[in-house]
């Protein structure tokens, strides 16, 4: 009877254990290496129900090709007794003073652990270079982990100001301007009012960046890729088409009257001015439409959130960075509010100009799924018809705008003639495309195999996507540069196309702890080099990264 009961109990325990999620090594033991002015810190973050054996932890230094065990010279936190073993739960911080490092070139960490459900992992060894240079992303991660709270936020605000000079913000300028124009039709516009509307827009935009970034960091989701789904792009494009026809005066976008009544109570101020709810919604959507720019600050914040789970500091850093990106938009709102013309015929014509720009933005969004030649054709037609319409107006300023649309249409048709595959450069003939020969790899195993087989050569891996503007800039301006091409001539060039965000694409990105293109990695002697290319880099900046890697 007791034997039967014992077998039943063991079966229940086995079934319960089988239902527990089996964590990978990286999920069970999250190891982070940080160098400070006083020491080298190894932080081992243990997942729930995971523990480390005290006796398995061994720290060695590599000096002149010889290993020196320094474990006993280090102070670790007191272990916990568990099943007659000394173990560590939760987190373990190993601090190695600089005085012990001396001329060591490498720190070697050995450890082994188990799960309380009964699964044990094989012994694990990790190596850290003591003198390896860090790239921009790594430096930013370190600053988040070791920097002063307010200094970190101020630094990220500065990053945002720099990102404001990139193409990320440009599409938002006509969107915000059109919002201010529409508000100016029904109420008195001033510099104060324009600044207020632009502040609401930028605040909502920053919230969108922050929420998307925190989700991406915590759950490893590639928000940028998810937003390139054809259905999402078509939906956003239709929103811009609707906004355009609304500005043309064909209809007025409005919610059902019952909804308006409820929203009016919240969003209308005491003076009865037009509510700001729509402004906030457009700011939020604009950030999602344009997509987060994968530049070092953004990548650093996302990796920091993913490694530490500290969504508060990471999220605040993303928010102030996004707000820094929006500073030019605040200036646009201030200027537009101050110099906004009075309602009337002039205002109606300005609305139509922004309507034409909205149509161009709708096509720009769809370019990620349309053939490039078709995007150029539609751009050209919009420019042609807008130019014809505005050239008939009497105002000289409107006639100048008409000339601009004519020129834009002509340039777009040039792209069709040249059969170019790059929306950024309609003058480039497809036949003059960069002569760099990239080999496409589709799986992580395939990539690592090539790296292993080509140990004698430098291997460069370019992560790209058809919808990635930064990738197109790299291809158009950097990879076509003769100096760059001469430098890369002896390299083994691999390319990972993440356009479709397949499971294999996700595995490759996760393996290297990346969040999306454009990113370029370099391998030498079969090992990943520390300095990588994150975001667009012009030829000079690209060559400097090669120099840092001594390749």
Notes on the protein architecture:
Helix content is about 55%, strand content about 15%. The chain has 3 domains: about 20-130, Immunoglobulin-like, CATH 2.60.40; about 145-345, no CATH class; about 440-550, Glutaredoxin (3-Layer(aba) Sandwich). The model is unreliable at about 5-20 and about 265-275 (pLDDT under 50). It starts with a helix and ends with a helix. The chain is α+β, with helices and mostly antiparallel strands. Strands 12, 13, 14, 15, 16 and 17 form a 6-stranded mixed β-sheet that branches. The chain has a 4-stranded antiparallel β-sheet with strand order 6-7-3-10, with no helix packed on it. Strands 5-4-9-11 form a 4-stranded antiparallel β-sheet, with no helix packed on it. The protein is built from 22 helices and 17 strands.
Q: What oligomeric state do these chains adopt?
A: single chain
Looking at the structure, what is the overall shape? elongated
| Average predicted confidence as pLDDT | 76
Termini, distance in Å? 73 Å
Q: Helix proportion of residues, in percent?
A: 40-55%
| Count of individual helical segments | 22
Total number of domains = 3
Structural class: alpha+beta
Instruction: Identify low-pLDDT runs.
Output: 4-19, 266-274
Number of strands: 17
Rg is 28 Å
β-strand amount: 5-15%
Give the biggest beta sheet: 6 strands, mixed
Give a short overview:
The chain is of the alpha+beta class and 551 residues long.
Which features characterize this protein?
single chain, 551 residues, alpha+beta, Immunoglobulin-like, 6-stranded mixed sheet, 4-stranded antiparallel sheet, elongated
